[in-house]
Structures are given as C-alpha cells and as structure tokens.
User: Fold these one by one.
Assistant:
Number 1:
Amino acid sequence: MKEDELRIFIKGVMNYFTQFEGAKPAVGIPYPEQNNFIFLDYSGIIGVVGERKGCIYVTTSAAMLDELIKEMGLGEANDELRLDVIGEFANNIAGNAESFFGRNFRISTPKVITGSVDNINLPLNLPVFTIPFEWKSQKSYLVVGTPRRNV
Amino acid sequence: MKIMIVDDSTIVRMVIERYLKLTNIDVVAQAANGNDAIALFRTHLPDIVTLDITMPGIDGLETLEEMMRINPKVKVIMISALNSKTTVVKAINAGAVSYLIKPLLAHKLTDTLRKILGEKP
C-alpha cells in the first residue's frame, strides 16, 4: 500500500473526530503486520470488494467507546451502543475512502465483535498495515488489508 | 412537518434525533434498513427523510428511488460516509435534495433543513 493510500485512512480517522469539540486524536506511524493482528475490547470490521479486496477494521477499548458515547450526548453506555459505535466508526473511515479509491471500492455493512477473532474468518489480505492512534489517552488501532486484486 | 430517520446505526439515529430537537420537526418514524423504511414511508408519508446508503438488504439508493416513486414531492437528505462524486451525483439524480457526508455535524443538518423549509439562517 502506498503512502498516499495510507494517508487517506489516517484522514478518515481524523475526520471522524471532527464531530467532537476538544481533543483531537494523535496518529502514530503505520507499520506492516503479517500476523498477530491486534484486537482490543471491541472491533468494527468492513469488508471491501472491487478492484481492492480485503477488509479494514478499527479496534478499541470499552473505555474509549464509552467516552465517544458520552461526547455524543447519548448518556450511559451499554454493550449494544458500544458495538454500534465501533461499527459506525469503521463505516465512516471506509466510506470516506471512497472518493480516493473510486467506485470500485465497495464496502460492506459493519461486522462487530468483542475480544479476539477466533471464530470468524477475517478477510484481511496482505500486505496489512496497522495505524495506531490515541484519543483522550485511549489507544486504538486501524488495521488496513485491502490490496489491489493483482498484487 | 414530519420527518423519518433511516440508518442501520442506532447511534446515528439517536444523534440525528437529538439534532432535530433544535428544530420544530417531528420524528414520525425510524428504520434500520431499506425494506422497513419503505413500509414505514407508505404508512407515515413523511415530508422529509434522512437516508443512509450502506445498509443491510436494499441499500439507500434503491430505497430513495422507491420513495420517489411513492411520493415524488418528498425531500430526501442522504447522510452517508460514502463520499465519491459518482455516489453523490447518483443520489441527486435519483431525487435527493441534499447529500451530507458522515461524520454528521449538527449545523450541517440544521442548515439543510432550514433551506428545505425556506427559512433564513
């Protein structure tokens, strides 16, 4: 994946937080990963088909999602809302990449999971890059594995 | 004025509902997918609809086309993370009056509603 392509996903992360006043996320340096993909408390996964094939996912802590729910002014967090927020977060990042990758970048509705991914077939295709980011002292990760079909 | 909110995310529907409290528009129905949206649309005949695109089953663009067939006068505001020119043009050509890109900001929705209602900002 080229640098400008990774930058689109970083922009997607930054864009997501424009809906909140105050703290902005700090994005770390993306790094390639071949296995041992990181999963925190909650993950939102978006499948990608078209010229690119694979998936992206965002993984974060329950504390981070509780903070997002609070920022949205929606009161007390619960498991259902946390799963919904992480799915929508992933959807925002993937959807916002459409203008860069074009109409052949087609995304699925989000799949959401808690914990690790022992029981699901993650359609993550190599090369995979992990983009760390932090917001309000909560670490999260965006994992992108959507190579062109001919790679 | 009656409005219907269509989005597969509960959180997004809650946020839109919260933003709509800044207006005098009544939320008459909410749906999480295209099929339910079309059924509720026929029942409630809202004046305005906020409509997501990426949803399970019938997507928002197909839902939009069906709503326009049922009531060509309805004002549909697309609210989606998809941001390509092709998708925006497709929605506008299908009859949407506006296209807002997620993440949704309160002032963008209220400004759009004011324009639809013919109010000055």
Number 2:
Amino acid sequence: MTKDAELPPAGTSTEEAVVPVEGGTTPPVGVPPVGKRATGGRRKPLPGESRWIAGLFLLPAAVFLLGIVFYPLVYTLIRSLFNDGPSGEATGFAGFANYVHIFTQSDGLEAFKNNVLWVVIVPALVTILGLMFAVLTERVRFSSAFKIVLFMPMAISFLAAGITWSLIYVDEPSQGLGNAIVTGIHDTFSPSTSYPELHPLNTTVISGSGARGYQTVKPVSSGSPGLLPLTGLDLTAPPPNAKPAAQPTGSGLTGVVWNDFKLGGGGKSGVIDQGELGIPGIEVQAVQGGNVVATTSTAADGTFSFPSLTSGSYTLALPHSDFVAAFGGVSWLGKTLITPAIMLSYLWIYTGFAMVLLAAGMAAIPREALEAARIDGATEWQVFRRVTVPLLSPVLLVVFVTMVINVLKIFDIVFILQQPAGGNAKYANVLAVQLYTDYGNQQFGAASAVGILLVILVIPAMIFQVRNFRKESR
Amino acid sequence: MRMKSKKLAVTTLAVASLLTAAACGGGSSNPPKSSQSNGGSPSGGPNLQGVSYDVLGQWTGGEQKAFQAVIDAFDQQTGASGNYTPAAGGDEAGVLGTKVAGGTPPDIAILSLPGAIAQYASSNKMFPASSDVQSAVSANFASEWGTLGSYKGQLYCAPVDASNKSTVWYNTKSFSNAGISSPPTTWDEWLKDGKTLSASGVQVPISVGGGDGWTLTDWFENVYLRTAGVQKYDQLTHHQIPWTDPSVATALNTLKQMWGDPQLIGSPQQAVKVSFTSSVDNVFKSNPTSAIVYEASFVATTITSDKLPAKVGVDAKVFPFPSVNGSQPVVEAAGDFACAFSKNKAAMPFLAFLASPEAAKLLVGTEGSGFLSVNKNVPSSSYNDPTSAALAKQMVQVGNNFRFDMSDQAPAEFGGTPNKGEWGDLQTFLTNGDVKAAQQQLEKDAGAANWG
C-alpha cells in the first residue's frame, strides 16, 4: 500500500493526523485508523497538552496582547467620551459629543462621506479589475511576465507611489504626465493660437471681456484708421514675429492692433509710441448692424485693412477666439477630481494584488468542471459566468473583504496626495486623516472618537473574515 | 506657521566677521544686567558647572546654527552644557504636547504660539520667569512683547526672535519694466500698480500663496488691522466679537478688490493651489510670472534657501504693507518665545541670557541666520544684511504699536491646521469671493474651537 507512506505516523497530534482531506474524507480501505481513534476513547494527555503548561506558554503573548492591543483600545474608548482641554488633557465627561462632532463639522462629514465613497467604489473595482486581469492573463503567452508587471506596484510603498502620482497629477502639461496626455489629445482635435493675456487698459476705447471678445466703442470709417490698443503682452518674451507697431496704411477700412505698453512704461495711452509692438496674427472683424461684414487678420506690425470696405462706418471687433486660453488640461487634484484621482492611484497599486490572488484561486478550479461545461456547449462567457465565477466566489469574497478593510483605514496615499493639492486637499479628507489632524491639534478625545468609529466600521468585515478563515481551516 | 523654520544661507563673510567683533564689544561694554548679576563663574555668568539642560525647538539649518551659537556662548560663560534638539518632523507642538503629557518635558521649549503659552501656564506645566528674566525682558523689549510671554500678568517666557509680517516683496526688474518708480504706499495705489504690471505683461502681478492657508490668514490680518484698528483686532483675536461682525465684512470686501480680480492675482482656482514657497519662487525665479508677493520677513530666507537668482536688497526689495483708507502705520508680527518646563538650575539663567542683547546679536548675526530680533539694544550693524536690519528696525520703532499674528493666537484647530478652520475658510473665500458665506463659516468654525 503506497497510501500508508503518505500518512503521518500514528500518535502525533490530532490535527496533523486528519490533514489529508484532499480527495475525500473517508480513509481508503485497509488503512488503519489513526490519531485519537487509534489509542481508544480516553488517553493520557501528552507532554505539552496540559492546560497549565499551555497557559504558562501563552502568558507572555497574552500579556503582550493585553498591553499593546486591549489596553490602548479600552483607553481610546474611554478617552473618546471626554472633552479636550487646551493642551490635550481630558476635561470632563463629554458623552457622545465627540462622535456627534464628527458628523456635524464640515471636515469630519467630508471625511465620512469620502470614506463611504471609497468603500462603495474601490473594493468592487479592485476585485472586478483583478478578476479581469486574472482571466485575461490566464491564456496568453508569457502570462507570468504580465502578472509580474501588474503586480509590481505592490512592491512600492504607498509613500513612494503617492509621490509618483503627485508628479503625474501636476497641472502644468509640460510637467505632469496626466495633463500632458489630456492636452495632447485635446490639441490634436482643436489646436489653438491666441492671446489670452491681452486686455485693454483703457476701456473707453475698447470694451468687452476676454470671454465675449472686445469691440471699439466708437464706430470707425474708412477715412480714419481704427486704433485698437491692448495691453498685457509679455514684454520680456514677446512673440518672435511681432514687429514695432506702425500707422496703418492701405486702402479701405484700416487699423492697427498693438500692445499699448512698452518695456519700462512711459508711453501715452491710446497712442502708438516708439517701441510699442504690433500684435501679429490676431483676427479682426468689421461689424455693421450686428453682422460681421468682413474678417481679416493683422500683419506682423499689427496693421490690418479691409480694402473692400470703402464707405460707411463699422465697429471693429476682436472675437473671443482671439483670447481663448490654451487648454491647460484637467485639474486632477482640484475640488471634484481629487478623490477619484487618489482612487485611481490606489487601483494602480492594488489591482495586481487582487489579480495574483484570483489567479491562484482560478488555478485551483478543477479543469473537469470547465471541460464539462464546454463539452455541453457552453460559450466562453457562459463558462466564465456560470462556472468560473461561482467556483471562485470564496476567493472573490476574500479579496473584496480584504479591500474593504484596507480602504476603511486608508491614510498614507491620501495624505501624500493631499500635499500638492493646497486648498483643495480638504475635499479628499478621509477618517484616518481626520484622526491624524485631530491628534496633531492635541484634541485627543476627538481623535479617539474617530479611531473608535473606524473600529466599529471595520468590525463587520473583520468578523466575516475571521469566520471565513475558520471555515477554511475546518 | 510651519514654514518659518526655513533655512537661510546668507554668506557675507566680511559682515559676519565684523559682527563677531561687534558682538564681543557689545557684550563687554553693555553687560546684560540679568544673568550676570548672580556672579560667581569665571566669565561673569552664574556658576552652573556640570549642569546640563535640553532645549526643544523647531529650527533647523542656519537658524539652528545661530541658536547653537547662543547656547555655546552661554555654556562658555556658565560652565553648563546645553543640548538643542529640533522636534522630529518639524511638528514641535505635537512633540512637546506628547512629552509634557508623558511627564518628560524638555527643560526649555521654544513656543511660537502665545496661545500655547497660556495653555501650559494655566495647567502649571511651565514655570514663571525669575526676577532676572523679568528685568532682562523689560530692559530690552517693548512691554507688549513681555505681555505676549505672560499669562495673567505673570511673565513666563522670554522673547527670542521675531518676524515682521507686514512686508510686501517685489521684483525690482518687473517694476522697472512696468515703469513703476516707487512702490505703492496705499491700497489703491497698490491695486493700480497691479493693473500696470498686468498691462506690462506680468501674467499674475500679485502672487498669492493660497495653497498654504496661513498666508491667507496673514493677508486678512494685515487688512483687518488697517480697516478695523487694533482694538477690534484684539477683540477678534480672542473671539470676543464674532466673525459675522461688520468690520470683518469690510476687511473681506477690501481683500476681494484684489483677490477677486484675475488681472491682479490670476485665476483664484490656481492661486489656491500655490504653496508659500512657490508663491515666492514665482516672483524671484529667472523668468518670473509674478512681480509682488506679500508675506513676512522670512521671504528672504526662502529666496536664499530656494537658490533663486534674486539678491535680497537688490533684485528683491520690500515695502511695508500699504495703508488702507488712510490707516496709520502698524506692523503685524510673529515670534518665538523660550519657556522653562522644568526646575533645571540652568533654565532661568538661560532665559535671561536669551533676552540679553548679547544673545540677540549672536542670533541675528551668525552667518546663515535668518532671525530678526525685537531687542531694542541690538544695533542695525549686527545684522547680516541691510534689509533684515531695516525690517527689524521697523518693528523696534513701532514699539507697542504692533499686533501679534492673530491666527497664531487662536486655538490650533481654528487658526493652525491645514485646510481647516480659518485656513480652509479663507481658501474657500479666495476661490468664491462670497463674503457672507465666509463670515458665517468662520464664525461656525471659531465657535466649535476651544478658546480656553
């Protein structure tokens, strides 16, 4: 009998004796019963099985556990029920005021709301993405290579990952990868050259706004050239093709758009002074009765002319497209996007982790079940939906619950990515960060209340997880 | 105000060596009455042979070096041995709080928040100043500085350094490009010059570092000091009048004239993301995008430590925060105080020494120091550069007509926490310009804080 060799020798501890569960619970015929049953119903406790000795050996661990887990927990619970004095001491019983405080103060409420968002969105996404990658990498060549790449972010600390992502989220498209991509895509579809920095200094000559465009206050006729003074051109680095502004020449309606300011100041407002630059390539419209009659654009010295308009008076307009600011990309760490942006960086880290766990789970699914389904004519989607997912559900659940626990106590990546967000950081607040802030302000009661709230929130997930582990070890 | 612990690396060797001579000369000709009156030790100070004391602070870099020079001088005179440690992570309030709560306070701690002085004094964690310290403080400082170091009329802490928070820094090149010959002296002139700078092609004429909420509180405080006056300022400081007071609305509306104008400060959505250091960088980097930045005397420290191409006093100049509607000159100041947390024999003598001109000269004159002192008996020649000397002189000259940073005196959860309380509310105000909503939110947050 070969099976005999695989079984542990009789007389070792009972747990070990029942280990070979794989392949059915009934021992093969002919194998003598092992463990407890081998020695009969009653037996003398072996050395090391005495309760007293066990207790003695457990004592250091128990003391340690009581000292560093139980005592702080109880102390935190008690402290959370007391008010905070000015230098952090407890002053007077507060009841649940500290807890109420979390939900009545704007930042505490924001933290709670964001934590809820995190729990609702992130664990589900991580699990789904992990499953997707696990399934997709299963059948490809070099699947381990893909898995390694996807898993790699797990090897980076949250701090380093946070700093990396804060660089990705830099607003300046020349510095931040995120906006480099976004503006790159945008500009492919609508390239723009304009002068968002220009604006009139003297609004009695030109009125309007950058958003609507500007027009001359007084109408212009072909006899007298139209002067359109603007200011704001960066004189330390003017457009390379700009030439000194000139008096308009040519036939028909003429005019000049120029920067009514020279380096060092001192020019006369509304007059083309020596050293003032023309604004090249800006679109000018001649408007009559509300309708655009003609359109042209300025030369390098700022002059323009409408040779066809020889009579009548027109309003000269600079359309708002002249002043559209270049698309600067998305404000990743702005008010609305900051939490999704941080979630994205978290997904980047944890998707690989979920994938590896789920891939391991899938490897354990019996091939026969999948084969059988395929032979019965199931499509791949049906196999995935009806066979793989149900068989994988215990692992899916473990991944999901682990993520819930992880996400509830999320701190580091949020904290790091809050740093470059400036005033928008408050929109990314989460409970753990709130705890840290309160602690830093020596509001130990308030901080304790947040801590206890986190414990309460995490307990259901913990219970579930512990039960699950117990089920597995049984 | 965590940013204050920035280092300075001014390297004017000649001046520094001159100063050492001046400091020595000053020490002998004008002996501090306090620490030396007990007599006994070889060089005049009390004999503290074998006594060791530790000091907790938040200074690092050049400032730590300057403070160490003071400790060394004291140790040499008395035979004591001092050990200065900067708080881990720069979070001095947190480190000190934990140490005090744990029963192991440092012998001396440097506090920058008068509110903290009151907290620790009221809970008897700190020891009242000895008569030596008292006489040194009253001999060398305007009485208001002593009051800031006191609790219920009893002096506890000695002033160490100060910063002038009514200073507006500008890029001289940008000003000359725009043809502005002299800096503005009134708020309206300031707005007008801002427009001129904008016309001259400066994208964001006035750089507002809204990413750090404390810069905004300083903006508000300077405007409030000028529109509401010192009395209202004191009342608002201690939350004796609510933030919904009309005087607050006036100040916020004044601020809005500037903050609400994209031609002056650029997009507010952008300004609220700019950190204090970036706001300085934007004015003094090689292709500046801004021309003016308001903050405190320690902007000089940022210019040097960020290795910006501007030279303080030449390319980077200062004008006092302009007067609003004809207000009288007034200075907003901040500073650090040394307080004794134990009965260590060296603690009081050291505090007295810190309050002496001798220590102040070392503090401001050590190479790389960014400190200013409001010690009346420190000559301008002690400073490493004329700009610092002028800013210090301005603070000394106003005597008691200055006000300490309001948010530094408020409970930390209101006046000292990033993105929270006053910091966060002013950031919101910067972005939306809603005066009424800002006032209500400020009052709500102030009401929730513990004013002791």
Number 3:
Amino acid sequence: MENKTKHILKGMGLTIISAIFAILGIIVASTQNLIAGIFIVVASSLFWGYACLLSRIVEIRLKRTTN
Amino acid sequence: MPSLKNRRNTLKKNDKLIERFAFSFLYIFSIATFYLLWVAYINHDIAKLNLYLMFYLIYIILFYLIVNDLYNNYDFFKTSGNIEGTKLLEETHYFCADPVCSRCGGWYWGLVLSITITLGLKDSVISILNIYKVQMIYFIPIWTIIFLITTPFHGALNFLMKKETPNNNNKKLKLILGLISGLSMSFIAIGILSLIAK
C-alpha cells in the first residue's frame, strides 16, 4: 500500500512539474520570444510522457507481485 | 517489490535505452534556454540570467532522475525475468536523438534539426518569401499536405518492417522524410505567424 501511494505521488509530481515548465514556456512566449517559448512548452512534455510510461511500468510491476 | 532506489548495474553499458528516450527534448530545451541566456547576457539582466540558469539546472537534474529511474525499472524487469516489462521498455521510442537509430532511422533527429534551423533563421526565411511574393493562402495548405504525406509514412514503414530491422536500407529515406516534415512544420508555423502579423 505504501508503494502505491508513492507511485501516485510520483505521477502527480511529474504532471505538476510538466505544467510548471509549460507555464514558464507560455510566459517566455508572451514576454520574451515566441519560438523559444514554444520550444520550452514542447520540452515540458517530457515529464508528461514519462508519467504515462510510468503508469504502464507500475501496472506490470504490481501485476507481477500479486501473481 | 524491491525498492526503487536500487543502484544501476552493469547492464547500462550494453543497451541503447538512453538514446531512445526523449533526448531530443533535452536538445530543444537547451537551444531555447541558451538563446534566452544569451539575450539576458547582452542586456546585462542578471536576475533573468540567474532565473533561466536555475530552471535549466532543475530540468537537467530531473532528466537525470528520470533516466535513472528508467534504468532501475529496466534492471528490475531483466533480473526478475519479466518479459512483458522488458519488452515495453525496449520498445519505448519517442523523440530519440539518434541519427542512425535502427527503429526510426533518424526521423525524430531530422525533424528536430530542421525545425530548429528553419525557425532559428525565421527572419531571413520570411524576407526570402517576401522577395518572391509567395502567397500564404496557397503556401500553408501545400505544406500541410506535405507534412501529412511525410509523417504517417514513417509509421507505415515501421509497421511494415516489424519495428527492428538491423539491415535496414531505408534509413536515409526515413532521415530525409524527417527533415522534410520538420521543414513543413516550421513553414506552417512561419505562414501562420506572417498571417497574424498582417
């Protein structure tokens, strides 16, 4: 049960970090330079993508341990 | 279930997991941040310089943690003999930064390269377009069609070739397709930007 909450917190943290970087990118796009802001928004999707991958990894790991 | 903090072992030297996982994102972020740092340095804006440096350091540390975590999971799956999990991680492939990747043949690398070059030279591209009086009404749909042709073709190639083919003759074709689709994406962006500016 502890591991489950740990994984949930990890995924949530990754999503929030992704959102923070995306907001930074939007701020840069509106104040500094449009292209650099778009690049930062694109780069922020790394954390989002890893959160999606992590959910599948955890699913397989938990299925393994219950069997 | 063992702890997630177990250390990486010797498997990391032999496989190419790290290049397949999202290194292009790091390249894109580095390019954007270095540009912003350069602008802040020219304007003698120390506060902004420190802010961007801090964000860049945070990004690099988080990237390292993600890759480390990925290797921990991969080692766990390998040592426990979990075929499903090993397959999942070995077939993970998005935004790799390998120009001679056996899976995508450098498609993502070409995409990122041509996008960064074309958008970096945005002003000169727009001035060239203005010299030859390119009409944006036809310009955007044509490049959209080219983008649609070059992009799913890559997926179709992957599907037909059963993903991993060591003796792959179509690597250069895939790289060129990636370059063209990146070019078309950035041309679409430039067209929309110039339409907004009018």
Number 4:
Amino acid sequence: MATSSTDVPIGPSSRAQENPSAYLTVDDRVGLLGAMLFMRAIEERAMNLYRQGKVPGSFYDGFGQEAVSVGATWAMAAADRLCVLHRDLGAHLVRGVQPAAILSQYMGREAGITRGRDGNVHFGDHRTGCVGMVSMLPDMMLVAAGMAMAFKLRGEQRCALTWFGDGSTSRGDFHEAMNWAGVQHLPVIFILENNQFAYSTPIKQQFAVNPVERAAAYGFPGVSVDGNDVEAMFEATRIARERAIGGGGPTLIEAVTMRMHGHGAHDDMKYVPKALVEEWRQKDPIDRQSARLKELGIDVEALRQEVRAEVDAAAKTALAGPMPDPATATDRVFHPRDADEILLGDGAAPWSGFGS
Amino acid sequence: MTEMTYLRAISDGLRTEMREDDRVLLMGEDIGVYGGAFKVTDGFIEEFGADRVMDTPLAESGIVGTAVGAAVVGLRPVCEMQFADFVSCGFDQIVNVAGKMLYRQGLPVNITVRLPSGGGFSGGPFHSQNPEAWFMHSPGLKVVAPSTAEDAKGLIIASIRDPNPVIYMEHKNLYRRVKGEVPEGSYETPFKARVAREGDDLVVITYGAMVHTALEATADLDGASVMVLDLRSLVPLDEDAILRAVHHCSKVVVVDEANQTCAAGAQVSALIAERAFEDLDGPVLRVASPDAPIPFSPPLEAAVLPSVERVREACRQLLEY
C-alpha cells in the first residue's frame, strides 16, 4: 500500500505481499476466497441466464473486481453500515444475503431482494445493514456520510462504508460528500473502485489528478491499494475502520483494479485494448488468493465444487419462484403511519477479529 | 391558544417536536448561530445545541443526502433549504434516493424538507419560486403547504412524524403577514383539505399564500356566496374534499401561485374533469403565474403573480357564465 504519485496509475505499482494482513486466520483467508468464488459463480450463472433471456434488461457484473468488495466488507462489524454498488456483489454475500435471493433479484422474481421493483445489483437487503445504490452512483457517498454523522452524533463506535467508481469522482456529490465528511470528521470509509473505465470513458478523460490525492485537500488520508488483492483490501479497510471508530475521521481508499467485462452484458468493450485486459487477467484476484491457499495446503478445488453446487441449487430455486403479481405494482410507495418503524439491521461479520 | 405569526408557529412546531423526540435534528445553512435566514430557528441552538441545530456546509445535495443516511439509522432529520429555489441542487437526492428507497428496498426514509417558497417581495427568479409540482410528480414524496399559523405548526409536527419523505412548503410571504391563534403543546394537522370559508355559488380551490388572496378576492363579490377550499396537502391530494366542494358549488376556480403548466391546480382540474364533469355548471377556470421566471422589478412581478384582482375577475366571469 502506498500513497499514489501524481501519475494516474493504470495498475498496482507493486506485487502484493504474501501476507498483507497479520489479522487474518487461515479460516478468514479461506472465507475470503469462498466469498469471491460465490460472487463469480453467481455472476457467471446470471450472465448465462441473461443470454437465455431469463434476466430482463441488461446485466452488470464485477468479474475480476471481487476482491474489492469482499476484502473491504470482511473488515466491517455487524453494526457497521454499507452502501453497496453494482460491482460489489461480494459485500452482499459477506453480509449474509443468500444466492437464491440474488438470482431471483436478477430475474425480477418475487423472491428477489426488491421483489422485482428494481433490477440487477440495484438492491440492498436492509436486514443486513446494507443500502442499495441508485444509478447516480456518488449519491451514495452522501448517504454513507449521513449514517456516519448519526453514529458520531450519538457517540456510537460504528462506521459507514461505501464504494464508487472512477466516473463518480467527476460529479458534485463526490465533492459534497468528501467535504462534508472532512468538515465533520466522520467515521466513514470511501472506497474508490478505480476500474479504469466509466462505461467507455478511460480515466485519463475523467480526471487530471488522481482523486486519491484529493483526500488531503479535504483533510483526511487517501491511500491506493491493490484492488485485486483481497487481503490487501481487507487490511486497508481494517486500518481505515480502526481510525474511524477511534475518532480519526474518514479515509479514502483507492482500490486499483480493472473492469474485465463490458459496462453491461450488452457492451462488447471494443474500446478497451486487448493487451490491457490480458495484462489484468494475470492479476485475477481469485487466482491469486487460490495460489496463497494452495501453499497452505487448502483444497481449493473442493471449495470451488462446493460453491458451484450451491449456486446450481440456488439457480434451481430461483427459477422455480414466481414472478411478482402485477396487481402489486403500485404497492409500498408510502409507508403507513401506523406500521412498525423499519431501520437497517445488523449484517453478518465473519472476520475472526470480531471474536464471533 | 396563543396568537402568533405563521413563522413563529413553524418555530413552535419544530421546538415542540424537538422537545418530545430527541431523534429530531435540524440541518441547514445558517440555521444555528444565525438562527436561519428568516429566523425560524432563532434561539434554537441555545436550547438544543449545535449537534441538533446543525449549521451545514453550503451543499443542498449534501444536506438531503446525509439526512437520508441519518434517517435510515434512526434519526429524524428536518432539512431547511434556505430558499425553496435551492432545492434544485438537492433534487436528485430527494427524487432518486429518498423517494424511491421504500419502494425498492422496503426501507422508509423519514425526513422532512422545509422549502421557504413564493414571491411577492422582489426576490427575483431565484428567491421566489414555487417548486411543489416538481415533487408532486415524483413518486414516494408527500407534499404539504399550510396557509395558516395553526396549520403551519400542526403540519410541521405531522410531517416530522410521518415515516415518509415530506416536502413542507412554507410561504415566505405569509411568515410575518399572517397571524392566528395556535394551540399550545403538541398536535397534528391531518394531510387533508380544509374549508377556509363556506359558500354555495362557486368554489376557489387553492393552497398556501393564495388562500389569503382568494379569501380577499371573494370576501365581497357582488353578494355571491363563495367557498374557499384550502388543500393543505398536495400529496396526498384530498380528492374527496375537492369532489364534494365541486358537487356543492358546481363552479370552480383553481388558483396556483406557481407557474401554470403542470402545477398542482392542473392536477385538481384534471381530477374534476374526470370525476365531476356532471356536477359542473361552467368551465373550470385557472389562475396561475404564466410560464415565465418570476421577475425582480415590482411592476413586472406584480404582472406575473396572481393578484386579488385577477382572482376576482375569474370568479366574476364564471359566476356570469
């Protein structure tokens, strides 16, 4: 991990250390791989379902970016809160959302998290402490800042986290959230998922100065991390969270990664040089974590099989589920006054450091 | 009961609810130390402290967006836009984040956004607008607009307690001009219309500052008996009260201070056309600001905003129909 130079990086500047974090047990390291395998298997299955016409609209995935959401979420406590973006399915998996509910969501089924009200990764299961994104991505930076503001006002040792992309750094809400968090010294972690492209626009047309450098101008640290190293992502987030709940204020983490697929399933990505994709394929986060675990004698292939079987079963369940009833299309626009209050619940927090 | 201005009634409602519910906090620009551009929160910071009467950065999207975040973890933020006009800078957070959260994810967003709105004092194009219809058109938002001191207090309390995002329109031209008896303590005004004056020959349907314009215009209208219906809530719209009034009077003038096209009154008129056609004894007439920015210079502004005379003229025309 190093603070970036003024050059806009196109990839991690150094190879990941073998053990980027001293805070992970072997079980943690296996858990991290498992969550990434789940994310990839679910998204690959969803892409097939899309091609079969079972996923309406388009489909958006985080292929090759699994480490960013999985590693960061692993460092978050149950009482922490997250705003999750569309290439961060791993966050939902770590927090405890079930694969069948996710596949149902993609297919617009009643059993999906939004019950067909919204599509693809546009969801948040509030029971797991997650708020789903809107398509105006940096909006969620302000929502995360607001959650952190509430924690601080109430004197709670809790932290909020959100992700956003390189394109988001061009919008005003990025500035408003960074500034607000800096001024109020909030316990919030902003993760810039720099995957080199916003749809077809490369980062050199998005910013003149790497946004991680802007953090200093808002009064808090910005660090660049190898976003394809799940353990490095965990460690950077763990440090940022420790700072946040200790009253040290926000952190901006730039996760340097690459969008390996098109913006959506409809995008052939012909604007991305093939050599660049090939270069990043060598840095695949799942391959890297698998190699680490194999050295420890873990049977990665067995884990892979296990995940695949579970996703197969989840797909079967999801496909068997009904579509939503059209008669309910206008339900739940307003919350009844006499209904129970609904707030974000606690999500799963599997890191051994929380002493579960 | 205590007599107070519309502005003091809003303050009284906010103070009452803040004393009763420590989850309520106020957020806005210059609302703390300075007490607000219009002094609605004057003295609040002394009683409730800077955490609950929060002077924020000058960032409307930031105010609404962070309020949404605070709301979903259990606070009850009340956001002040310094002028309603500036809500355009927070529009995305209101419309896309706050308004659609419950529908998409089953997570209610209990925020109130106060919009000091309206013209009549040379505020010019950016300090005079009535943007309520922007929000009426967007699902998941409630929109209320009190015209009296009593309702100003009761509706701010009801808005804070409502679990949905509520856009609270407070008309700047009523702040110190309108006074009334206001009940002590805590009470809620329902999101329903109110008959501001009974009448039989014609009904003027309106809300906010135009309720007073309508009352003045029809107080002595050649002996005609004119009802004035104060909508109070635009979302939900009290359709039953509108249809009852039309059934009773058969002649309808709809008044908006807002720009005419797609204003709240357009929705009222459409409702009447669809569901009360047989009750009508004449066309539904509308009085509103023409579709131009609200100008600065007094004669120009007066030429745009609906006046007592324009409302009276529309009523006369319809009574003679």
